[in-house]
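retry 2 of 3: previous attempt timed out while embedding zinc ion. Reduced batch size to 1 and resubmitted. Inputs unchanged:
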Amino acid sequence: MNAFGGPFAVSTHELARRPGESRHLNTTVLAPQDLGSDIIAVPLDGPIELDLLLESVLEGVLVTGRVRTMARGACVRCLEDVELPLDLSIQELFAYPERMEAARESGAEDAEERMLIGETADIEPTVRDAIVLGLPFQPVCAEDCPGLCPTCGERLDSDPGHRHEVRDPRWSALAALTEREEKS
Ligand SMILES: [Zn+2]
Ligand SMILES: [Zn+2]
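retry 2 succeeded.
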């Protein structure tokens, strides 16, 4: 009957329809597929720690807490591996179906709101949104990563002082440009 289950399906059995009740949930789940971008993502089956408070409110069950995990990717400047710890806050109301319908009929549709399925809250979309939005578009290995040498492609961080023989200073800028173009 339940179309979904799995680690992100949180039971609210002892909370539903009992406003004022609450319980803590501390658990570690494994990351689903495609949790991020090509540049940086939480690897498949990487551990995600959930530290949540489930509160029974009139409209449904309110889930508040933190999501902690490790993302992996590559520095956009020097292509070194990057490990990025994430510690994100989430909050989402899982409404009772009839509350949602009542809200819709009164014209106060809230597209953000999610719904309880039976007594279960599927928190995967909430966790996914938090992580995807929490990832940087341009991950770097260090804020001041100097990137790659435009002339030879060496990581400048491992050899900051290295130089290339400059032919004619007037043409060196142009030469560097041409070399870069030849590379790409
Ligand atoms: Zn870097
Ligand atoms: Zn160089």
